[in-house]
Every structure is written in C-alpha cells, then in structure tokens.
Na+/H+ antiporter subunit A (Lysinibacillus xylanilyticus), 803 residues
Amino acid sequence: MVTVLIAILLPFICAALIPLLYRRLRRITHLGWFVLSVPFILFLLLARYIPQIAEGKTFIHTYEWVPSFNINFSTYLDGLSMIFGLLITGVGSLVILYSIFYLSTKESLHHFYCYLLLFMGAMLGVVFSDNLMVLYTFWELTSVSSFLLIAFWHHRKASRAGARKAMTITVFGGLSMLAGFLMLYVASGTFSIREIIANVEVIRDHTLFIPALILILIGAFTKSAQFPFHIWLPDAMEAPTPVSAYLHSATMVKAGIYLVARFSPVFGGEAVWFWLVSVIGLITLFWGSFNAVRQTDLKALLAFSTVSQLGLIMSLFGLGSVGHYYGYAENSILYTQASFAALFHLINHSTFKGALFMMVGIVDHEVGTRDIRRLGGLMALMPVTFTIAVIGSFSMAGLPPFNGFLSKEMFFGAVLTIRHVEAFSITDLGLLFPIVAWVASIFTFVYSMILISRTFFGKLQPEKMDKKPHEAPLGMLLSPIILCVFVVGIFFFPNVLGHYILEPAMASIYPTFPSTSELTPHIHAWHGINAELLMTLGVIIIGIFLFKTLNSWKPVYRIFSQRYAFNTYYNRMLEFSENSSTKLTNRYMTGNLTHYFVYIYVFFVALIAGYFIWSDTIAFDFAKDSTIESYELILVFVMMFAAVWMIFAKGRVTAMLLNGVLGYSIAFFFVIFRAPDLALTQLVVESVTTALFLLCFKYLPDLMPDASHKKVQWSKAVISTFVGATVTLVGLAVVHFDRFEPVSTYFNDSYELAGGSNIVNTILGDFRAFDTMLEVVVLLIAGLGVYTLTKLKPRKEETDHEN
C-alpha cells in the first residue's frame, strides 16, 4: 500500500531537506509551518482509510529488501496500527503547532524539527512494520532520535544525563527484544508477524517460546517505562515541553504498549504473559501514582503520572489476555473488555496528558518556573490555561464529564471481573487486583488536585516568579484547547470512537474471534449504582480527605530514603561498570607495543592451534604434494636469511630493506605459481610501503640494543616459535582439511555469477564490493570526524553556559 510507505518515508525525506532549506525558509516564515504540513497531510491520508478499516479491511504490501534472509519491507495497516498512526500524526501536528509559539527563533530550530521528523518516521515505521527485523530497526531509531530530542538543550548537564539514561535503558531493552525476535524466528521460521500469529498453535510448544516471550516483554517494559525500568522517564523531562508532550504522552512510551498489544495473539493465554504484564502493570500504576504526590516540579509530577497511566494500560492488556486462554465463547467475551478498556484509555491518555504537558509548558513559559512551591494564584491571570488544567486533571483523575471517567470505570470493571477467572489460579490472588487499582486511583486523584490547587489557587507569589505572569498567546493555547475538546467530546460521543477506531483494533488483538461487534461494548456514562461507581465515589471521598490532610501524612515519604532509590542503584551500577572497565583497560592498555602483540599472538595460537589439536583434524599426506624445485628452495632460504637477519639488524633502514626482501620474494613465488595479477599487486604494495617506511625511518634514531631481561627475550622467542608453527600447521593442514565444503567451489562459477572470467578480479570487484564499500564509508566517516574536530569550534555561549 503506497499510502503507508509514504507515511513512513515522508518524515525522513523532509528531515533530510531541512538542513538544505532552513536558511531560505526562515527568511520567509517560521520553519515549523513547513514541518507542520508533514504530520497534518499524513493524518488526512490515514483518516481516509478509517471507514474501510472499520469494515474489517486490512492493507498489506511487501517490498523485497533482503530476500535471501527473509527480511522484507512489509507494511501492514489494520485497526491496531491505525490507532497509533492517527495518534502519531494527529498529536504530532498539534505538538508542532504548539512548538512554533513555544520555541524561540534563537533556538536551533532546524536541528529540533529534523530530530522530531526522524522520530515521527521511526514511530510510524514501528507501528506499520510487519517484519520483525524492520520493526526492530525502527524501534532502535526511536531510541536514537529521542536521545537527540531529550538532549536538545545540550548545554544543560541534566538534559545530557537524562538523554543518556533514556538511551541506555531503552537500547538495553531493544537488544533483549532483538534476541526474543530471533528466538521467535527460530521457532516459527518466519519474520512476518502475521504469519507468526497464523501459526501460533504450532510454535507454542517450542522450547524457545517462553524465553522469547520474556525477552520481548523486557523490550516493551523498558520502552514504556514499566517498573523497575521507569526511572528514565522523569529524567527525560529535561527535554523541551513539546518533546515531553509528544514523546512521553502519545508516542514513544506507547511503543511498548503497541508491542504488547500486537503480540497478544501470539503470547496471550500463557500464564507467564498474564502474570508479568498484569502484575508489572499494576505495580507501575501504584508506584507511579504514589511518587507523583511527592513531586514539587510540575513536569516531574506529570512524568510520574505518565508512568502510572502507562502501568494502568499495560495491566489492562494483561487482564485481557485471559480472553485468548478461553477462546471464543459466551463467557470469554467478558474478559476481552479489559483490552477494549486499554485501547480506550490509550487514546484518552494521549488527549488529556498532551493537554496537561502543554499547560505546564505555558506556565513555565509565561511565569518562568515549574516549581509548585513558587506558584499559586494564577487562575485570575491565566483563566484559559486554568480551564485546560481543570479539564486535563479531572479527566486524569477519572471524573465526569471527561473521557478519562469512562475508561477508568471500565478499568474498575476489568479488575473486578478478573476475580472470577479460574485460569492461572487467579482466584487466590484476584482480590489484590481491585485493591491495588483502587488505592492507586486515590493517589491519582490526589496528585491531580495538587496540580490544580498549588498552581492556580492560593496566594500569588510574584516575588518568587521569574516573570510577570500573564495569559499565553492564542497560538500557544490552540493545541491544548483542541485536545481538551476531544477530552469532552469523547465523553459525550464515545461510541463513534468505539465503532470506527476501537472495534477494528479489537479485531487485530483477537483475530481468531469471528464476531468483532461482540468485542466492542456499547459505552455508557451511566450504568446505575454498581461496584465501579462506588469505587469511584470512594476515590473521590478518600482522595479529598488525603489532599486536605496532605501535610500531616506526607512525611511518610521520608521512609523511602534516596539511598535505596532505583536511581541510586542505577548510578551505582554505572559507576561500578565504569570503574571496573577503567581498571581492566589500564591493565592491558599499557602503552607498550610489545604487550599488544603478545595479546594478539597468544590469542591467535590458542584459538587456531587449539582447534586443530583438540578437534583431531590434523592430516598430512606429503606423497601427493608437488615436487619442490631448486629455485624454490633458494627463495625459501633467502626469506629465512632475511627474516633472521632482520632480528639482529641495528638500524631501522636495514630492517626495512630486509622486510622488503621478504615481500619481493613472496611476489616471486606468485610468479612461479602462475598468478601474475597477485604478483603485480604484491610488487606495487611492497614498493609503496617500503618507500614510505624508508622515508619515515630515515629521520628516526637508530635502534637501541634490547636491554630487556633474558626471561622476556626467551618469552618473545617462544611466542614467535609458536606463531610460526601455527601458521605452518594451518598451511599444511588446510590442504587436507575436509570437515567443511571448500569456499572456492562457490567461486568456480564466477563467470556465471558475476560475468568475470578472472576469478581473483571478480572476488575483489564483485563478491567483495559491499565490503569494500563499507571500508570506504568508514574512511569517509573518519575523515568527516577529523574535519569536524579540526575546523569546527564550539560556540562561545555554549562554553560559557556549560555546567
């Protein structure tokens, strides 16, 4: 499908054009207006397919990439990928519109928008890829581009540290996920996600199925900031607010959620999957909401609230996996509603959390601080911003008439229903699910009230503010206002979203269920007085009480000393690894060239000679060897003489001339063995290197006598003897080695394979062309690095602001 390919490639193409066009564009208009057209056009293109996706259609297209390894660029548009595609492009459009008014023109805007488009294209690649290897490629590209975005204000130490932490943790998870993908390929024989889902019954009994499940979940947990990998998300708040509103509410942190949803048809129904996803999600939900209350920075508060909400969504997908265990049956439909609630809250969270991040950015931009202790009394001065804060916070707290209330009620319904499930021995622990969910929701209500009251109510403190507070311009308010319209609109018209967006996504999560309409409940704001409503009323009552008595019980956080915080352990682990690697490196990186050669030669002898000795593959048969001519013996003795004399040479020039004798003698051997092209190459290389070394060594002092201890000299002699013996052993044994098919048999058909009659030239020019190209690329990168270090200098203001 061309539209999906355009959606993936267009952000990358525009990102490549920005460095070429930004100087001209900034004379005409703000660069952001040009970038805004990219996600807006893509959003409209994807929206055209909503009716067809709602009818159950899917769009698949495959472009051959590396067919020999079964790696193809396969794009797949279905209900699940449509949700994420619309969020990536829709919220992306609003974030770019917001950034036009938020970021100063003095900022490096061309870098910012280039990084943002790279991230957008990478996220679209993740959600639209059907091939595991292609998905992994885009997955890691999201880590790289998010690193650049978080460290955008690179003159700040905290920004650099936050970017490093985010990349370290997410890349570690990505490598784990890659190992899981490879295991899944071994078990299924395909990289296609659709084919894996279609053959899931065949691979469930494979020994690698559970290890692949665990490794893939690690990748999802690290990207979506699940406990205990959540520590990178609060530090990533050092990024500009548009980045936080995009990466950490609607896109990057949802990549792990997408992975869990996409692989639910594969791993759903497994007890390991259920317990890991649901329990880790609930722990993350509680821990994030509990820690959000103690924060004094508005973005830090929102960061922990994001962790909490991500845990809520993750736990719902875990609970919904029970539906795969029972399959399509009358009672199992009840258990699939958790997945529906997860998808519903996924969209709701993107709307209210995006608006809240933008609101905090407005406060920071117009007041000059995000510190709750310095804020207060802003309601009268910033009424529109206050309204945005109320809508977003009340939705996050799960209050009507906002969309968060609907999905929070469904969440309560899911944790109550799971108590009655007999699978996976849930009945014994089922009561813990609603208890943890309810307690975490109380803390969610408390920090939502803190966000509103401490910022907009109370006494104005102008002396503690860096700027005179005033309302933001309309351009900065427009994006959060649009999100707030969705927050309210979804509450009143939820079934439009349910029919056109959520129902086809449920069909993607439960592909074996014949009826998708039964998977999509009719969403009501009022279900009468039931357990869910009573839980919500309890959240409000106890939440108000805890908020009013906050100062009396907040000292409980002192129990959780920073000494035992996860960040402390993370920092200790980094410090330990850095110190250990430094000590290890200093032990073998002595600066002595002799030591380095010893390491290389000892490893060479141990590996090669050890293999031949212990594998019992040494076989010599001199009877079939060719007759050695007298002139060949003369050449051998000349080379032996030159090699021995070179050891005792007192001058560098003499040593180099003797080394040249060895090289030219090898060239003569090539002539004798009827390989004139190799002989010519050897002569040219030897002549150039000999002349070059002679030119350099002429200006160096003479060699000093070796004053090292006799034991050292003897050790060098022993190592040299073993190296020579190993090379001789290889040369003799390789003629009769028959454990593997000779590589040369493949190149015998060089004319048919590459159209070259000279096999040596064909190997160098065709079969090794890719290798040669990479060598040239390495030289190019090294040259660019040298040029950058020698020609470019840091700006004075960057040096002055370094901290």
Summary: The chain has a mean pLDDT of 87.
